[in-house]
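Case study 2.
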Amino acid sequence: MINEVIDLTDHSRNMIFNMEIDQATEIVATGDPEKIATIKGHFAIMARHNHIIRMARTLQLPMRYFIVKKVAGPALLLAERIDQIKKWLEENGFGDQFHPSYTRMVPAHHLTEIALVGCPDPNPVCTRFFNPEPNSTKGNFGASYIGELANSITQWLHQIPEHEPIGVLFSGGIDSGAVFLTTYNIMKTEGMNLARLKAFTLSVNGEGQDAIQARNFMSSLDLELFHEVITTPESWVNLQEAVQTIEDYKPLDIQSGAMTLALCRGIREQYPDFTYLIDGDGGDENLKDYPIEENPELTIKSVLSNQMLYQEGWGVDAIKHSLTFSGGLSRACTRGYAPMQKYNFRGFSPFMLPSVIEVAEGIPYIELTDWNHEKLYALKGEIVSKGIESLTGMHMPIFEKRRFQDGAAKERAFGNAPMPYRKAFHATFDC
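Prediction:
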C-alpha cells in the first residue's frame, strides 16, 4: 500500500465559499460523494484515511499525481504541474522513473481513490461526486444561469481584501461580457469602490478584432472608463513557451493559452501589484457553443446527449479518456490556470463552478433546439443577454462568436497541424 504522501500543491489556491479547508479535507477523507458535493467553490483536495488516499477536484484547479517506487514502499507524489513532478524526482534521485505519460490527472468532478499498489499498479477507482440533473432548470433560463453566476462572483468578491484591484480578461464576447457586467453590477450594488475594476483586452501588435469589439461593447453601455487595451509584441506569442507553460499539445488549447500568457505578461508589466483576475473561461462549454462541424468526432446528438461532454470529455470509463490528462475542460483548464500562475495572479473562472454548470446542464437543449445546429449556436446569446438584463437592467451587446486566438491578433498563431505541438511537448520533457 502507499507508504508515503508527498504533497507539492498550494493549499491556498482553493476558493471554498461555505467552509474552511480543514473541514473540506475531512469531508474528502470520508469518501462520501454526496458529502463532497456539498463543498461549494473551486477546490483540489487530497486526504488520507488509513491506507486509502482520496483526491477530488473541480474544473479550474489541476491536480496531478505520480507513484514513486521507493525501497521502503511506494509513495504518492501530488502536484499541480508535470514539471513539478519531474523536478522532485530528479532532485531526490528518482529521475529515471519519470516520463510525462506516467503522470496522472485527477479527473474533475470525481473522487479518485488509491489503496493497495501491487505490480503492476492498479488503476485508481473514480466515483462521480457532481451529477447535475438534465432538464431541471425551469422558468427563465437566463435569470437562473446569470443569477447563479452572480451568487458565485459575490462570494468570491467577499473573499478578496476590499482594497485589492480586480481585472477582467475581456474580449467583448458573450462570456467575458457577462462576467464583467455581473461583477460591475455587484460592486456597484454593494457600494464597493468601482475604481478597483478594470477590463483588459489583448491586442497583439496593435491588431486583432477583439480590441474593436471590446471598445464597442463598452461604449454602447457608457462604460469605457473601465476598459484598457494591453498591446503586446508578436514575439510574446511563442509556441514552445506556451506548450511548456500549459503542459499539453492540443492545438486549440495551446493557441488560446498562448494569448492568455501574452495578456497576463502585459498586465503584470504594467501593474506589478495586481493579484486578482476573473475570466469567462468555461462559458462555451456550459452552453455547448462550439462549432460541431470543426470536430469530425462530434455530432449534435453526441453533444446534447452526453452529460458535460465539453467539460469532461467522453468520461472516465471511455476508451478515449486520457489517464495522463483526463478530458474536455478538465484537461484544458491549464490553458487559463497555468498562464495566470506563471505571472503570479490569482485567477477565478466562475463559469467552471459546479453550481453554475448545474444550472446550465439543467437547460432543456433538445427541446429548445430540436437538434438544429443554428438554434444551438444562437441559444447562448439569447440566454445570457436575457439573464444580464434581468440582473442588471442593461442590454448587453452580442457579437459574432470568435475564439480568443482569432480575435487578439491579425491571424491565428502556430497553425492547426498537430505535429509541431507534439514536438514542442516532447522537447519540453526530453522524451
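Residues 251-270 form the longest helix (20 residues).
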